[in-house]
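Students often ask why we bother predicting the structure of a whole assembly rather than each chain alone. The short answer is interfaces. A chain on its own may look different once its partners are present, and contacts between molecules only exist in the joint model. In this exercise we take two input lines together and write out one structure for the complete complex. Read the inputs first and try to guess which parts will touch.
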Amino acid sequence: MKRIALLGMPNTGKSTLFNRISGASARVGNWPGITVDLLSAKILIGGHIAELIDLPGIYDLHGFSEDEQVVRHFLTNNPVDLVIILLNSSQIDRQLSLVLQIKKLQLPSVLALNMADEAKQTGITIDTESLAKALQMPVMQMSAKYGDGLPKALQAATKIINQNQPASDPQVISRLLQEDNQIEQEMDALIQYHVQIPTTLSDNTTDKIDKILLHKWFGLPIFFAAMFVLFQFIFTVGKPLQDGLAWILHLLRINILAPLFVSSPSWLSGLMLDGVYNGVSTVAAFVPIIVLFFLVMAMVEDSGYLSRAAFLMDALMAKMGLDGRGFVMMLMGFGCNVPALMGTRIMRSRPMRLLTMLVIPFSLCSARLQVFIFMITALFTAKQAPLILFSLYVMSFLTMFLTAIFFQGQYKNSEPFILELPPYRFPTLRQIVLRGWQEVKHFLIRASKFIVIGVVLVWTLTNFPSNVPPASIGTFAGQIGVLFAPVLDPLGIDSQLAIALIFGFVAKEIVLGALAVIYGLQGDALMAQMATQIDWVQAMSFMLFTLIYTPCLSTIATLKNESKSSAFMWLSIAWSLGLAWIVSFVFYQGARWLGF
Amino acid sequence: MQLLSQLKIGQQAVIAAIEAEETLFHRLSALGFRVGKPLSIIRRANFNGPLQVRLGTTDVILRSTEAARIRINTQSD
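Now the answer. The structure tokens for the assembled complex follow.
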């Protein structure tokens, strides 16, 4: 099988081109010599089946960032038949250096100049024929976004593949990489003779938009307003979809699954229906919101606004050892922690990425909000309610800042904050949908594994031994509740609430259901019952603990997957549990001491 | 000669020297910061936030600590 590598600088539309060539057939794969996953797809080219690999966007083959090392290690460990180099036409004066570096490695290459339309608008004209002669490789202008010029580029690629030259020798590449050359001079000469760039760029739409969006005083308020509108959009559109899906899943259970298990032993139907099916459908009901979330985020990211948000917030974030991009992820976490954790991939420095990932689980996500609204309605007056909810949001921010300040020494950021500010671009629908779909697919694969194991465990704990009522003190879960009593009693959390907290470890969505099972009541009756069993100080302590301790199994799974470190995952769990305990303890004992 | 971090908004300058360790130097040169290249500052974020610098066809944002590693000549020098 032939192997084709796709290579280019960040923000050149590499992923767009990859998606366009491969359709939606991409898969994540492991490669010799590197630890990160790369996207690849099988494509048919000139009668050969070839594997197309999407390498990370890099500025320089000789750089020291994680991505640059990944590309270097890939090329020095894997033979390659062809490299498709993608450049941004309107920045060719700078990006040509990457082409020359690849050329020095004597890899068979095709140069695709993307964003031909943008270059045209800014008045840049590139003589592709003479440039091709000078570089001794095919040079094509194209638009990955709209597909213009793609057939021509693929033709050139096919021609090289059909020549059946031997694939690159990783050892030779390794040797050549060490010989750094006078690339800069060569680059200047090429630009001087083959490219014309006007002294001032004629297209200034981006400048005009930036004058408003990056305004000294209005920039941040506009940013917050925009974020608020986006979240509002996600949840107004997503909530009915979620309710609808939950309803369908419920009907499926009553009408198809329940009759199916009617004759099987009660432990099996209990395990399958109350355990596996309930757990999985709880997660499945969240899929519409996740899909919307990713679609919106893909749009924001591709538009170029994310780099602007980073610019606006960087001064404050720098004081906590984070940078502007970290703030955007914290905001994302208020919807759902999982995509926010996955979003930290845009950070190139590992310490900064880890610090951001440690902070995100404290974002008051929509699942926790659901628990809080229920508890607040049950135990506080309508007048107090908004204030209590607001204080929980403040608490969420405080714990995030505290965590960042506390750990910033451990995760010293070695990387300087230098970001390219791309011009505003309108992403196409196809681009957004493809991006969104890939993220959703990965989320589902990961979440499903974890949730099934988690719910089976919880179901077992609350249903055995089988001679006592489910979820009562006599069950294993009840026994664990009693076991934790010495730890949780000082927080005002009784053994029944403790069982709910154990449920909450799997997913916060289950907390309400758990309370319903434990008290054997639903809706208003449950609220009334809880109001007689616990007072507001206990309720607040319970809510603080729920806010701060580990959000859910999906978040933990994502933490482990993204950090590729179990130790980091355990650190995050231990820190959040410890902090939750201390905050609840201080609050509960303090309130009692003050006479409440 | 002055530092990039001291350059006024809208003023033109030419890079005179880059004083950075290898990692930062590589990163800067990959983004187009090279001796002799003209540049200008478009805006600064509030509260001593990052600078937006324009080099040729590229806009880059960087913190003033990094900008202080780049020496520049303004036209008046």
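Check your guess against this: The interface with chain B takes residues 59-60, 62-65, 90-91, 93-94, 97, 122, 124, 184, 197, 201, 207, 210, 214, 216-217, 307, 310-312, 314-316, 318, 324, 414-423 of chain A (CB under 8 Å).
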